[in-house]
From TrEMBL, chain A:
<dbReference type="Pfam" id="PF00474">
    <property type="entry name" value="SSF"/>
</dbReference>
<keyword id="KW-1133">Transmembrane helix</keyword>
<comment type="similarity">
    <text>Belongs to the sodium:solute symporter (SSF) (TC 2.A.21) family.</text>
</comment>
<dbReference type="InterPro" id="IPR050277">
    <property type="entry name" value="Sodium:Solute_Symporter"/>
</dbReference>
<keyword id="KW-0472">Membrane</keyword>
<keyword id="KW-0769">Symport</keyword>
<feature type="transmembrane region" description="Helical">
    <location>
        <begin position="440"/>
        <end position="461"/>
    </location>
</feature>
<keyword id="KW-1003">Cell membrane</keyword>
<keyword id="KW-0406">Ion transport</keyword>
From TrEMBL, chain B:
<keyword id="KW-0472">Membrane</keyword>
<keyword id="KW-1133">Transmembrane helix</keyword>
<feature type="region of interest" description="Disordered">
    <location>
        <begin position="42"/>
        <end position="66"/>
    </location>
</feature>
<protein>
    <recommendedName>
        <fullName>DUF2897 family protein</fullName>
    </recommendedName>
</protein>
<keyword id="KW-0812">Transmembrane</keyword>
<feature type="transmembrane region" description="Helical">
    <location>
        <begin position="6"/>
        <end position="30"/>
    </location>
</feature>
Amino acid sequence: MTLAIFAIVLTAYVAVAALLARRIKNKDDFYVMGEQGSTLLIVGTLAATFLSAVTLMGIAGISYSEGPLVIAALGSFGAWVGTLIAVVFIGRKLKALNCRTMMDFFDYRFNNKWVSVVALILMVIGLLGYGIIQLIGAGLVLAEIIDIPFPVIIFAFTLALLAFCSLSGMYGVVYTDTMMFFTMLAIAFVIAPMLIGDAGFEAMKGLGETLPGFWTVGGANDRPLGWSISQFLVWILFFACTPALVSRVFPAKNDFVILKVAVIGVFFAPAMQLLVFLAASAMQVIQPGIEPTDRAMIVGFMEHTNPTLAGIGLAGLMASIMSTASTLFVLTGFALARDLYEKLFDREVSERKGVVLGRISQAVVALVVCAVAISRPAGIYWISIYAGAIFAVAWLPTIVAAMHWRRMNANAALACMLVGSITFIVVGELERHGLISLPLHIDNLQVAILLGTLALIAVGLKSQPSEYELKVFDDIRARRLSDTTIRDILARPDGARELVREYRQVWGIMVLFVIIAGALWGYLFSKLGT
Amino acid sequence: MDINSHVLLLFANAFLTTALSVVIVGVILLREYRPTIRRLKDEAAASSSADTTNHNKTSSDLRDLS
């Protein structure tokens, strides 16, 4: 049965991607869906990209063994707020500047080949490193569940990813992400409540007696508060500017879609995660002693629900892997085709050739991913230690300063990216090999961000921005996505009425989701916190 | 009633996430959209009072804005 589900799910995604291929008429269609993304599609792609196998396995495993608050109370809170920052403050501004990729912003802001090269290298390493390691980790688990050799799983996944990234670009990614979002919703709102119901709230609260500390932020292993605070910092800084999340808003139809996504999509981040973490904790009541602990949720839906839900759970696990991987890999393909070939090598490319190039680069990425994931070189594990957070240490201070500091210039950007990323890796390695030890609650990420930012400020103060950089800064400050949206809507027949309707709809959604959030979290608190 | 402050922190942060998103979006709507909405309503009101005897379809539609 598991094999059948695996095959059906992958086939469904490929079929959808094949159908969508006919919509690709030009580069804008390929890179940003022609900016036709509705609220449902952008919520779907954002939430699906946010929820990865890390939630369903790694953090769920910690919730099972140590308690659901250990990561969720502060670390995950950082991820939720980071997602909000990525959507509203960074993604929205980049879309106002007509960016198709985050690299477009670096190119426009600095017009400097060295800044673009360094930013591009960091992005490719960060995306591929983070994506491949997730694919490997989850692929190993799936191979065990479905009883298929690991290389076959990886090959099947990368074929599917190749199909929907290469055939239909961002259309394929966004539509399949939204399909995946619904399977994840089933895990969070059907399977998880069933497991919680089976365990019972009283028995779950009772875990605080059998596993002292289970219902504390420190957890059953009594982790120090400083560690939890550093987790908050890691996740908020990483998620705030990771291209995987920022780029989710580029296909949006207009600003109203993004504002609605900021409320709805950002609600689903904690909603889906917390219900999964609580269900994982419930598994400690239902079946203590699961090893390794990151299988807790998988055991839950495979062995403690009916076959239909088990199948949905498996599809949801696959979705959590593929949704994040597809976004990461499609962005890498875009970087090769558009940011490297077209822009850095200065090649004029027609619309048709641009789409072909985009497809070829997706195929190259798929081949590389497949080969590396199957061969599992030791180096990939080393890269993955640093890959994800590279955006936090190198990109975030650069992007924030680029948007808000008039003195920001190419030299300061280079200084920040190089000092940040090198410090992160060097300090991390020195600590890993026991050559240095950092003060309690300080980690290499904090050191790297601090030094990278100091380098940015020092170089920014010492050097002058060019006339171009000053002009662009003023343009960036002046441009607002709301102005474009208002102008476009008012240009339509009956535009005034439509504008007022959209405005009121966003207010309505805000009120609705405050009520839903209050009811959901209030109910769970009354059951578990009193 | 004994309250677990750690669990309270967890669910308070979950609620705070939605609250923050609502506040931020609310500020954006008020700063960037409300001036235009107000202007459109004022124009509609001015247009409809100038055309009280002339049953102009456009002005009667825009009256709906208020």
